[in-house]
Structures are given as structure tokens and as C-alpha cells.
Design a protein that fits this description.
83 residues; mainly alpha; 2 helices; 0% strand
């Protein structure tokens, strides 16, 4: 067996998740593998934008130009972990 292992994880936070959820994950990893080294390379807060206005229209036009179909604006709230 190899004496070392490495994993790179990427998480996409959706509202209402926050950095607190990342800390919970880190605590779980440390509990299961106390020798683990966790390096956080950056974090952005969840973002919900608007689907109206000049910016949204420009984005929709760019998507249509690139892919040939009208984009569908969808707003969804996803709860992965009970609050």
C-alpha cells in the first residue's frame, strides 16, 4: 500500500449554505483521519443573481449566440443539509 495519499475536493456552495458547512466537513475529515492536512485555497459566498436587466439580457444573447438556443433562467433553492 502507498504510504501517502492525496485528494483534491471542490465544493460549490448554494444558498443558504456558507463557510460553516466547509468547517463541518473539515472537522469530519480530521476526526476520521487526524493526520490529514487540509489546505483551503479560496472560498466565495453563494451568489444569486437577477435574471432581468441589461446584464442578464447580454448574458442571454451571448448564450444564444454561442449555443444557438434561448437560455432558460431557473432559480432553485437546494437544501443538502438540514439547517
Amino acid at each position: 500500500m502507498p504510504y501517502t495519499a492525496e485528494a483534491k475536493l471542490s465544493m460549490r456552495l448554494v444558498q443558504p449554505r456558507s463557510g460553516k458547512d466547509c468547517k463541518l466537513f473539515e472537522a469530519f475529515v480530521k476526526k476520521e483521519c487526524p493526520d490529514a492536512e487540509i489546505v483551503r485555497e479560496g472560498m466565495l459566498h453563494p451568489y444569486v443573481g437577477t435574471n432581468t436587466g441589461a446584464e442578464a439580457e447580454a448574458g442571454a444573447k451571448a448564450m444564444k449566440d454561442a449555443f444557438g438556443i434561448e437560455p432558460a433562467f431557473v432559480k432553485r433553492a437546494v437544501r443538502l443539509v438540514p439547517s
